[in-house]
């Protein structure tokens, strides 16, 4: 390389070196601007978005699981509902052999009719006893009148003392007969006094026995207490079941909720009444449910576990605990997009308004869940008992 070329190369290197510091400053300025902008964006996101909500994906759909069990012993003769099928409240799910129950019901029916007729007989006996009292009183009045008529004759020595003594004995006998008749009438009235035939204690006892037999016979048909979907059917034809034995479950899918398990550090600003959004894994982000916080659990999951942790021991290890937050869902949204009990979900709670309560206030007045299926059964038993009583009353009393 010639001397001239070497000089030109050195000049070019010195010119590039003079320009590089400016490029470096611009590059550093761009990088710093990016970091500052990113930090500003993060600060704004945290201030207006992340700090106003708490999220967890440890959440599951909850719902009532109504256990269907037998109330009387028996043998299964029919199964009228199977898993995944929808049933209505009051629908028969399982039938048991009712032969023995029908026999006991017929016995109770006859006993009730007999009790009504016996009270009618007692009423007639009491009326007869009253008539005997009246007759005895007439006999006493007659005997006293005869004695009163003969006493002046005795004083005038116109009547023998034997006849007058006989009359006195007759009065004493009449009084004794009246006392006996009154005692019999009192005993007869004691069984029926103060009540009508239908309200007589003997009739009420027979009526209660009939109602019990009638309800026991009806319980050979096992009804659905609520509307829902059948799950966990374990009963089979021919099974001999006992009272309390679970046969299947009915799951209502209308009034569902979400049990969201938040970390203890996330509960600081969660309050009852705050709005929440729920995304189920079943539908993904395409469907969002809107609910609200209705309660916060009274303890952590470890406390309520089968084997609670013994943190007082020497090998204690701190573990972040979770507390269940219950979120009510909108039934209209559930009707459009049904969920299933146990499905997982992601929950976001809006915590901007943290002035609400942490614990529930006064107890709720309406029941959490209820059914009138069994009340209808009892009312039907009462109506049938009344029909039997009317059928065995005198025609005039039955009409009244």
UniProtKB/TrEMBL annotation:
| Gene3D superfamilies documented for this protein | 2.40.30.170, 2.40.50.100
Subcellular localization is given as: Cell envelope
Entry keyword Membrane: yes
Cell division found in the keyword field: no
The residues covered by the Multidrug export protein EmrA/FarA alpha-helical hairpin domain are 99-219
- InterPro entries attached here? AaeA-lik-b-barrel (IPR058634), EmrA/FarA_HH (IPR058633), MFP (IPR050739)
Mind listing the UniProt keywords for this protein, alphabetically? Membrane, Transmembrane, Transmembrane helix
Give the p-hydroxybenzoic acid efflux pump subunit AaeA-like beta-barrel domain ranges.
Answer: 257-349
Q: Which residues cross the membrane?
A: 27-49
One family name in Pfam for this protein: HH_EMRA
Cross-referenced PANTHER family: MEMBRANE FUSION SUBUNIT OF EMRAB-TOLC MULTIDRUG EFFLUX PUMP (PTHR30386), MULTIDRUG EXPORT PROTEIN EMRA-RELATED (PTHR30386:SF19)
In Swiss-Prot or TrEMBL terms, this protein is called HlyD family efflux transporter periplasmic adaptor subunit
* Source organism phylogeny: Bacteria, Pseudomonadati, Pseudomonadota, Gammaproteobacteria, Lysobacterales
């Amino acid at each position: 390389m010639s001397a001239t070329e070497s000089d030109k190369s050195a000049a070019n290197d010195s010119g590039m070196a003079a320009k590089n510091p400016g490029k470096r400053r611009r590059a550093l300025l761009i990088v710093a601007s990016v970091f500052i902008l990113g930090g500003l964006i993060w600060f704004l996101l945290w201030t207006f978005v992340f700090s106003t909500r708490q999220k967890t994906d440890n959440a599951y759909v909850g719902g009532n699981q109504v256990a269907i069990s037998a109330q009387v012993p028996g043998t299964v003769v029919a199964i009228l509902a199977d898993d995944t099928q929808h049933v209505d409240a009051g629908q028969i799910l399982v039938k048991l052999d009712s032969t023995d129950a029908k026999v006991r019901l017929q016995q109770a029916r006859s006993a009730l009719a007999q009790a009504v007729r016996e009270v009618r007989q007692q009423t007639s006996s009491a009326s007869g006893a009253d008539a005997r009292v009246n007759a005895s009183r007439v006999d006493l009045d007659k005997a006293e009148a005869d004695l009163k008529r003969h006493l002046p004759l005795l004083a005038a020595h116109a009547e023998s003392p034997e006849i007058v003594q006989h009359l006195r004995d007759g009065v004493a006998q009449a009084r004794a007969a009246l006392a006996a008749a009154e005692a019999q009438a009192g005993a007869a009235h004691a069984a029926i006094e103060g009540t009508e035939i239908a309200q007589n204690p003997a009739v009420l006892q027979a009526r209660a026995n009939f109602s019990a037999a009638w309800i026991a016979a009806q319980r050979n048909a096992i009804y659905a207490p609520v509307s829902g979907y059948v799950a966990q059917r374990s009963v089979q034809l021919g099974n001999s079941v006992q009272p309390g034995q679970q046969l299947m479950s009915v799951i209502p899918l209308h009034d569902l909720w979400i049990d969201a398990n938040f970390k203890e550090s996330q509960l600081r600003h969660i309050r009852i009444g705050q709005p929440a959004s729920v995304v189920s894994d079943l539908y993904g982000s395409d469907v969002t449910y809107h609910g609200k916080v209705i309660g916060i659990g009274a303890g952590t999951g470890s406390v309520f576990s089968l084997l609670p942790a013994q943190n007082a021991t020497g090998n204690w290890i701190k573990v972040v605990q979770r507390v269940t937050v219950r979120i009510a869902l909108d039934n209209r949204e559930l009707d459009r997009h049904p969920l299933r009990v146990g499905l997982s979900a992601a929950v976001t709670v809006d915590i901007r308004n943290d002035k609400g309560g942490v614990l529930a206030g006064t107890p709720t007045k309406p029941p959490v869940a209820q059914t009138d299926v069994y009340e209808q059964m009892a009312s039907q038993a009462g109506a049938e008992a009344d029909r039997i009583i009317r059928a065995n009353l005198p025609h005039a009393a039955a009409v009244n």
